[in-house]
Amino acid sequence: MDGEVEVRNGASPQRGGPGLLAIFDPAERHEIRAVTDARLLLILAPWPGDGHPGARDL
């Protein structure tokens, strides 16, 4: 949303700013570090995930 971040998921780090979209596989290790003051939008999907106490069987 604002600022610059560095994303690392085992490979060399990638930098990005507003508009960056990073997608990770379930249980994939990753690290996100703010390079400048930054605001992030985090979307967890599907939500709630398997095993979450709020999950319902449909």
Structure description:
It is a single chain. With 58 residues, the protein is mainly beta. The protein has one domain. Helix content is 0%, strand content 19%. It is built from no helices and three strands. The protein has a three-stranded antiparallel β-sheet with strand order 2-1-3, with no helix packed on it. A hairpin with a 5-residue loop joins strand 1 and strand 2. The chain is elongated, with a radius of gyration of 14 Å. The N and C termini lie far apart (35 Å).
* Global Rg: 14 Å
What is the mean predicted local confidence, pLDDT? 86
What class, by secondary structure content? mainly beta
Overall 3D geometry? elongated
Strand order of the largest sheet: 2-1-3
- Share of β-strand residues: 15-25%
Helix coverage percent of residues? under 10%
Report the count of strand segments. 3
Please count the helical segments.
0
pLDDT < 50 stretches: none
Secondary-structure element series: EEE
Cα end-to-end separation: 35 Å
How many distinct domains?
Answer: 1
Largest sheet: 3 strands, antiparallel
Strand-helix topology:
Elements lengths: L4 E4 L5 E3 L14 E4 L24
Summary?
The chain is mostly beta strands. It has strands at residues 5-8, 14-16, 31-34.
